[in-house]
Structures are given as structure tokens and as C-alpha cells.
Amino acid sequence: MTSTPLQIERKIAWIYLINLAFYLIPLFLSPYPLWKIALSLAVLIPFIASYFWAYKCNYRSAYKPILVMVLIGTAITPINPGSISLFTFAGFFIGFFYPLKSSIFFLLSLVGLLFGLNEVCHFGNFYFPLYGSALVLGVGMLGLAERKRYQHKLQAQQSSQEISTLATMLERERIARDLHDIMGHSLSSIALKAELAEKLIAKQEYELASTQLIELGQIARESLSQIRHTVSDYKHKGLESCVTQLCKSLRDKGLCVELYGEIPKLPTRMESQLGLILTELVNNILRHSGASECYIAFDKQADQLLVEVKDNATPKPLVEGNGLTGIRERLDSLGGSLNYNLDQGYAFSVSLPLLGEAT
């Protein structure tokens, strides 16, 4: 499952629902028929459900609960003008999940909706749209600020993780060098002893040859023991190390890089192939795109893994060469697929099936 910054705050999400008190205030300020009160309270059930749904969403699916909130607020406004409170929740999530230009567009659309509802419901003054617009825009800006805060927090965490991963990679390289040194010395000694034993046998000096063979066997056993000890902690570097290195390469070239979601643990073969696929996509960005921003997103679902690599370069008609052909061949061997669109930069989406895979 993809982890989003907002999921970190899910445990205290109930606290923010205290703002629904403003939704309930109109019910006590003037006499309301019992059916209006009951209906106003009833719609809170799907609204609260959509509120917590938003906390579980990522940036690609957040529009669904936001739309539900807006629809509920629109439907209840003729009965309870306290629906302004409901629109502010939608405004916060708009600001949090979407970039500045998109957020402003959607927030202004909400403002237009409030003015439209004021006309349809004949409230008789502009208190509803003006007060509601101020709240929606203000809370939406809070959402934008919160988004920036979470991004900085996650980038700091990712930098810490990358440092840790790079330290692990350096340690593995040290072990590899140790292994090379052990094998080089041991094999040289074995070759020398074998050659000496061969010459002694040719001279029929069997006792001395036997001594050399015994020493040769001892060296071989010691070497085997050393090798087993050295490689006992040496494992496949994995997808996480590969992604960390790719992010570092992009940043070294001056790109702003964002990593979304948790890097999953996959079978060794799948990790290896996916690492090569991501390497090819990142190399294309470094060589051809001229981008200044890039993000890599992981979304692990029950039966498939979705990986998206996107940049903000000005797209040009794409002609598939050896690189993309190689990616498709790798994905075919895993039962996966590659899709891309050029609407806003270069966006490549990789889908891999997870059913039946052993971890």
C-alpha cells in the first residue's frame, strides 16, 4: 500500500473534526423541523467516512473523497447553511494534495459554487458565499502550507535513509574487496603448491609431494572457511539501494527529486529487473529530457505494483528505441506492462503483477 505524508497524521484525525461544530451551530440558532435536524446529522456519516477516506488516499486518488465531500456539502446547503464547514474540509485536502496552480483553480471553483448555491437557495444576503469563500481559501492555503511542511519532513527522512543506504553499500563494497583479496592470495598459494607437488612427483620425491598436497588441502579448507565467513552477511543490494542511487544521480545533475510511497520488498529476480527498468528510465531523463523536477512513486496493491516515473520536461514526440524496447521485453518476462503519456512532461507507468510471487 502506498504511504502518503497525510497518513502519518491519521491517528489524530479525529481532533480536526471538532470544526464540525460550526456545521451544527445553525441548528441551534433558529427553530428547525425535526426532519431537517435528522437529515443534517445523517449526512455527517458519509461525510466523516469520506474524510477518513481522504487520509488513506494518495495524490492520484484524493479527488474521489474530495468530490464526495463537495457533493454532500452541496446537497445539504439548502437545508443547513452550516455546510460552509464541510466545504472547508474539502478546501484543506485540495490544498494538501495538489500543486499550487491546480489548488488555486479548484479552490476558486469552490468559491464559484458557493456563490451559485447562494443564488439557488435565495439566502437573501452574501454572508454565506463571502464568509464561506474566506474560510475555504484560508483553509486551502493552510493545506498548501501543510503540504510543504510534510514534503520537507519526508525529504529529511529520505535523506537520512539514503545516507544509511549508501553506508551499507560502502560496507558491501568493502566485503567484496576483502573477498577478492582472500581469493587472490589463496588461489595463488594453491597454484604454487600444486605446481611444486607436480614437480616433486616427477622427481619421485613422493614424501615431499605428499606434504605439499596436505598443505594444499589445508589452504583450500581455510580459504573456504574464510569465504563463508566473509560472504555470510553479503546479500543482494536490493531495489532500495538502486532507487537511492538513482535519486542521488538525479540530484547530482541538479534535478529536484521527490520519492512517493514505500519501496517494496520483492523477489530477487523482480527487484533486479525493476532496478534495470528504473535505471533505463532515469538515464533517459538525464540524457534527453532537460527536466528540472522528477518524482518516482511506488503504489503496492494487493495484486499488482505500480511504479511511476515522471518529469516536468517539455515533451516531444516519442520514438521507441532500444531502451524502451528492452524495458518492454523485461516486463513481458514478468507479465507486466509499460504505459506512458506526454500531456505534462514525460510520465512512464510500470505495472507488475504480484499474485503468485514469493517474497
Describe this structure in words.
This protein has 359 residues and is of the alpha+beta class. The chain has 3 domains: 5-156, no CATH class; 160-231, Single alpha-helices involved in coiled-coils or other helix-helix interfaces (Up-down Bundle); 238-353, Heat Shock Protein 90 (2-Layer Sandwich). Helix content is 66%, strand content 9%. The protein is built from 12 helices and 5 strands. It has helices at 13-16, 21-29, 34-42, 44-56, 63-76, 84-97, 100-121, 127-202, 206-231, 238-252, 268-289, 322-334, and strands at 256-260, 293-300, 304-311, 337-341, 347-353. Strands 1-2-3-5-4 form a 5-stranded mixed sheet. The radius of gyration is 31 Å and the shape is elongated.
Strand count: 5
Number of helices: 12
Q: Stretches where pLDDT falls below 50 for ≥5 residues?
A: 1-8, 232-236
In what order do the strands lie side by side in the largest sheet?
A: 1-2-3-5-4
Shape: elongated
For the largest beta-sheet, the strand count, sense and barrel status come to: 5 strands, mixed
Share of residues in strands:
5-15%
List the helices and strands and how they pair.
Layout: H1 13-16, H2 21-29, H3 34-42, H4 44-56, H5 63-76, H6 84-97, H7 100-121, H8 127-202, H9 206-231, H10 238-252, E1 256-260, H11 268-289, E2 293-300, E3 304-311, H12 322-334, E4 337-341, E5 347-353
Parallel strand pairs: 1-2
Antiparallel strand pairs: 2-3, 3-5, 4-5
